[in-house]
Amino acid sequence: MQEIMQYIPGNGIFHRVHPLTKLLFTVIIVILAVLTSDLLLLAFLLVAVFLAAWAGGLGRGLTEQIPLLLVLGVMLVLFTVLTMHGGEVLFTLIPAGIPLIGGGLPVTTGALLFGTILSLRFAVMLFAFQLLVVSTKPGELVTTLRQLKMPIDYTLMFLIALRFIPTLQREGIRISEAQLARGYAPGDGMMGKVRGLKPVILPLILNALGKADTLGLTIDMRGYRRGRADTGTLSFGALDGVVILAALALAAIVAATNIILV
Amino acid sequence: MITIDHFSYTYRNREHPVLRDISLSIPKGSMMIVTGPSGAGKTTLCRAMAGILSHVYTGTATGSIAIAGRDIMEYKGIEELSHDVSMVFDDADAQLIFTTVGEEVMTSLENRGLSKKEAEAELVRILDLLQISHLADRAPYTLSGGQKQKAALAATLALGTNVLILDEATSELDEEARNLVFSILRSLADGGRTIVLVEHMIDEAAKYADSCVLVKDGTIAASKTPEEVSRIIQKSLPPITKRPGKEQGDLLIEATGLVHCYGDFCAVDGVDITLRKGEIIAIVGENGSGKTTLVKHFNGLLKPTAGTLRIAGSTCNGHSISVLSRHTGLVFQNPDTMLFEDTVRKEIAFGLKNIGRDQSCIADVLNEVGLAGKEDTNPRHLSRGERQRLALACVVAMGQEVFVLDEPTTGLDLAESLQIMEILMRLSDEGHGIVMITHNPNLATTFADRVMKMSNGKIVCSQEA
């Protein structure tokens, strides 16, 4: 089973640079993705992040997320098309021939474009963030966040979220196996599927809530909220300069293209 | 070291106190076992001693608790108490916060204020002590239940507090690992620490501990040596007699050369096993020896990589769960992985509806597992022992020929475990075949017709019990 958003041991470029460098890289990419509304530039950013991942030997981890992103992208486009209108009307979802509601729900070029931009933006941000998470030991990430004076409660929250993703994935599988053993078969059709989720989702949520109490007590009783001693032993190297320069170069390209386009 | 004086406690929004007038004294350098049925108040007692009730929860407490002469209320909070008292909870998963075992233990050591060099030496020592050095770089989600419990204990030992409380923290360990943990605790006590251990296997722990209290309905029913408490418990139980041997029935399960591999790793590696009508087989073996992987084949959750498997007379190597689950019912280790409805009746009806079976048997099944009259109770409000029996009832109601139980007595005391065994014996008398995985060697030899020991995916020993 493939774990989502988990550290993958390795020795690529991204594994060797300082967590702070990667954090900076991610932040720059995310800011660029937010500031850019140009389809081509976003596509360029996506390719750039992908090439960076590939150079760092992390290409596979990212490509595995593509199905999820496609689903997300299609949903985003769908939502935009349904809720936003602009530009030319390509066709209407309800044919004009039908009385009263005929010609409703128009699909417009503006909405399609905006939906695609949103999806690309999401993809860039997700990939950049994933690049950071899969190449950095969570402990080092937390130390870095602490050095940046991030409050301990927030860093712990971040750490726990990362740590429990695979646990919940596994628990979900265990619960669904237990229900399968009771002859449970998810229903047919969309509504059947949604209703069929109850026997799996409900125990998953109840058990997770049950863990929260023990988790909180453990954090307090092990004194984690005191904040750990500063153990920053990682040092910056030439590679850090390369990664930061690459991020800045991307920023320059995006900025320059924006100016030329205007 | 710990003095409890007439302590009572009522949780918020509850009518009845969970602990009633408890007085106890646990001297420095001693190890005390706490035992009793599920829901008796053992966990609450642990939380009282750790100061959690007084500083985190908002119930009503009377009486007092002192650590080394200092009243718990005098501490500023859990934070300050954590320098003196540490506790291992029963849910190991929720106590592993960091992403590797090494980091988990290291963080505890650093919080203790050790220098980098001291901390590293201590890390090696503690992982060695618990025999988990090979797990240092593993993420929590890749560990077995027993390994998680060892890791959680390691992180707590690393805090080096004078008082150490373990609340059913050894429930998923096998016999060897349990004895390792008990002997570590003993040596800590000999070194001047105070140890409180909530444990159901008191016969095993007895030779390591100094004293034992039996908690019942929120009071201390007995406070004596472990051997004496064990005798009191034995006396209150129906006499345990060895199950008489039975004549052989028809074959229900027949596996030959069963192999199951995850990539390069073969969790089940050439197992031959048969189960006949009316037979009870116990499968024992260390954590991670392939027991659960093996039994998941019997109801189709897993398909064999190689070998043949015949169930109820037909070969079914490729059969799916929906076909095989009509022959084999599987009860998982933790009842909470399956309970989701808001009444006991609905919970049992769920499985019956799934296979299109009549619901008239619900009352009989509840009667059979000793839960008659609880039809409208919310499953989550039942005690651990009751939930385990409900999980069993949910599967038994479906009436398959074979029932497989993965660790049916984890977290249960002896009386509750015997209740489960009694149900299994009745089912076998009715002609069902039963396979149970267990870490309790006594239950295995007393109630099973055959005991099979697994190691590294193979059956290394199979004998008539």
From TrEMBL, chain A:
UniProt keyword terms in alphabetical order: Membrane, Transmembrane, Transmembrane helix
Broad class of the protein's primary localization: membrane
CDD domains: EcfT (cd16914)
Cellular compartments annotated: Membrane
Membrane topology: Multi-pass membrane protein
GO cellular component, one term: plasma membrane
Listed Pfam families: CbiQ
Ranges that cross the membrane: 23-54, 66-84, 90-113, 234-261
Signal sequence segment: none
PANTHER family found in the cross-reference section: PROTEIN ABCI12, CHLOROPLASTIC
Name of this protein: Energy-coupling factor transporter transmembrane protein EcfT
Natural source organism: Methanocalculus taiwanensis
